[in-house]
Amino acid sequence: MARNNPAPAAETKAPDFIAWHVANRGDKAFWTKVGAAWFHRDRKGVSLQLEVVPINGRIVLRTPLDDEAKEQPGA
After folding, report:
1. Stronger pLDDT, 8 or 4, i.e. the higher one
2. Which of 25, 30, 68, 72 makes the best surface tag, with the fewest CB within 10 Å?
């Protein structure tokens, strides 16, 4: 008989990086938060979760500032 044990609740932790879309327009760069990234447990890789996918510009991963980490659930 199979056991129906519920899966342990996923631990929500603050992201290791914030993903930003950077669009250059003339001499200015416009930064828009587009997602977050977390190290894998073995720290040999990163999982990236994007809320939107930009069609131009670049995506930059930066460590969160203290106030950004407080905005994330479970932080």
Report:
1. 4
2. 25
